[in-house]
Amino acid sequence: MIKHLEKEEDFYEIIKEGPIIVDFYADWCGPCKMLLPVLDEIDFATILKVNVDNFPDIAKRFGIMSIPTLLFFKNGLEQNREIGYRGLDEIKEAYKLIS
Per the residue annotation, which of 2, 14, 26, 29 is the catalytic one? Predict the structure, then answer.
């Protein structure tokens, strides 16, 4: 399931329980657009999409320097990070580390 962050104060509420993948992206980013169909295939995790243009403070807080960046959280703590375009198999492998 894909959720789009709408309010900054919801970010920590959403990531606080269970495993979740956070996708830092921008609408103008080519590799981010390429990643979208891959994320649509994911049925094993909740994905929170965070637009870095709309939420620069969150991106800065997590040191996001390149997009797309996927952060893998478990119970509110970052467990893993993948930078750049990743295929479905790579995302599954990274997710296995936190689930």
Answer: 29
